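During the reporting period the student researcher (J.K.) took over the structure-prediction task from the postdoctoral fellow and processed the backlog of single-chain submissions. One of the processed entries is reproduced below for the supervisory committee.
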Amino acid sequence: MIEIALRKILKQVKSSNPETRYEALGKLFEYKQQDGLEVQIDVLKEVIKTAASTFPERVDHWDNPSFYLIDFVCDFPMPEVVEGLMKHFDGLDLHAKERAIEFLLLTEDEEVFYFLEDKIVHLINTEDYNIPIGELSSYPMLIKGILDVTLDKIQFNHYKYLMYDLILSLNNSGVEQGYKKEFVLASLLADYESVKQEYLKFDPDYSTKYVYTAWKDSYLIVRNKMRLFISLMKYYFSQEIAQELNEALRFNDPLIKTEALLVCISKNLQYPESVLLESAEHIESAEMTYWELDDKNWEHLYPITERKQPHLAKTRLFYTVINSPEDEGVIRYPEDIQVVDQIETENSYGQPIRYYVMRFKEHQTEYIGWVGGYALEAGDDAANLWDGSYTDFIEFDSASIEKHKQDFFEKREEEQLVHENSVYYESSPKLSKGAWFFLALLIAHWFRQILSGFNGSILLSIFFTVVGGGLCLYELTQNKKRKITIIGDQLIMQDGSKQNSIYLHDIKKIEYNKKHIFIYNRKQELAIKFPLRWVHYDVFSYHINEHTAHLKETPFIQS
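J.K. obtained the following structure tokens:
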């Protein structure tokens, strides 16, 4: 049983022998990779309690049992886990606290958020805490509560850009635009001037190739700071800011230039039409320009009116290659990117999509790549896509175009087959409360018999043991034939020889009461009904949400 193995791990991670701790954490990682793993609540509570205890002195970066134990329990979104994390939070390692905060944010519970605000403020004031900007961005009121008492940390190096990120997120949310305007504007101008001087050292020699092959992080960090500050200028505007924006429109970096352009458009400031065209055409900024204009309902300003898909496909392939996992000593930089053909097919939901066959050069070798799939339901030249862009760095001339296409479809079929047979979640009912109650009575009865020296009729005790044990065994046998699974794109209920299923994209609503869970299809018809005790509902609903969040029409899932 997993519970026995986990209790063994909890003892091993406290060992004074680093090798024992290493092996235990490795085993814990193996269990974490298992889809649909279920663990008894009491053991999960023990894991949290152990994570908050003291451990032997660390010997390396991996030697952090507190973090790995908390990372493990965060795969089980249950109320008892939430309660345990809050109860033992103060005893956790800093990295474990960071992981716990990310998990607790998902509860979207008002009481939990009060707890988090207090703890995050305390960490900011006492530690070099890595604020989870992305996770907090959905909760502007929580951000505001944090900023209200920690804004002074904008003067500290560790927190400066984290604070600016929080301020930008709060402004973008619309909850309070121009938050603390006088203070932030003064700070913004001073910090922007400092970073701009760093940027100006690169600007004269700017080239896209230099960015990704030579300058790398030394430049990308400066670029990101510049983009952050310019984005904030939309909300902290002044005549001085207008001058800075006008200067930024003349910079050579296309992403910085595009950020400045977008602020100018939002503020009705004049800008050269040539800058807009350059942003739309440049390999680095083409997609950014299109999607930012589209998001703000300014798509009428986009200067490229025909064949947007093949144009934007080049940028999509550029970033696909740039962001490919690096082989040792290999710097990824695609050049001479061309569209050579296209494929019309369907996605897993039967919707028409298009892939572009691409050719690009890297280190004097030409490779084939694939960009798509572009959704065709919104129009033949619509830019929306279900991103499945990739390259396997197969040489373009190694086969004919038709053979490359054949290989593409064969790979899609193989991946679809693997997906359709992949078990992403599985749960079977455990023994009922009645069975556990009977077993408890039976154990107590035999314990009393032993203490009394088997006074009374032992045959009656044996009879009830055999009958009760048989009933429990029968229930266990039946439970093995009962399961709820997510396999590929389907939710499947199996009850003995009876099986019922529904595609995840066909689920309209999931509700439950004290006894059952109800799954309704798009026609509002009851498609599947099964006992609540067959699953841990919080874990079940978490997995359903995880596998449907990408859909245009997500199902209602009762919390």
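The committee noted the following: The chain has a mean pLDDT of 89.
J.K. will present the remaining backlog at the next meeting.
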